[in-house]
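Give me the fold.
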Amino acid sequence: MNWPQQLIIVRHGQSAGNVARDAAHDAAADRIALNSRDADVPLSELGREQARALGLWFASQPEGKRPNVLLSSPYCRALQTAEVFREAGGTVEHEPICFDERLREKEFGILDGLTTFGVAKVFPEQAEFRHLLGKFYHRPPGGESWCDVILRLRSVLDTISLHYRERRVMIFTHQVVVLCMRYILETLDEASILKIDQEGDIANCAVTEYLFDPSAGADGKLQLARYNVTAPMRQQDTPVTSAPDPIVGRRG
């Protein structure tokens, strides 16, 4: 068995960036009103509530269904989600949170912080390139395409299979990373993953889970057990939030 017993992938709770992005789009503004680096954007108060609800939900599960390895994007909003989750009893014990920079948000380069309106106004050629290439292949100057994210995530999965086999691993990360993980683990193509993306946004603190199936293939494989599940928040009467996928902006 070269895989963890269980792999849980969670998008961070609602962030201050998500709130600012929504306000910017509602106002048809060119830029999102944030003065910090994307990496430093914290959770909103509701985001902390969502992370706590997630932790309480896992705390109510049998020990064999709670994670015993915690991996996180180094971005503040992901780390805070992991910390609040752990404080609420979501892990078997007080597990350490291990950073992995390969789990960070997709980088937007020169378009970072712009709304869709702002891109069309400030960098109309980039808006046209994205229209022609599609979000899967478009790489803004200084930024990443989805393919670039997928490339770094392949090495993350190699690390997980090497060091955390037969463990219960939980990852705290960002929306594009969750989708790109699905692309890799389920051997999807561009059309399939973009169709999943178009069907609905990944909610903040939603659970995507894979379980190892020893009967799948010659050596067994991870099989999708649930996707974008918001039951933890609903059980705790915590509002569920998500955000559409803009061309750019601090939101994931």
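The chain has one domain: 6-235.
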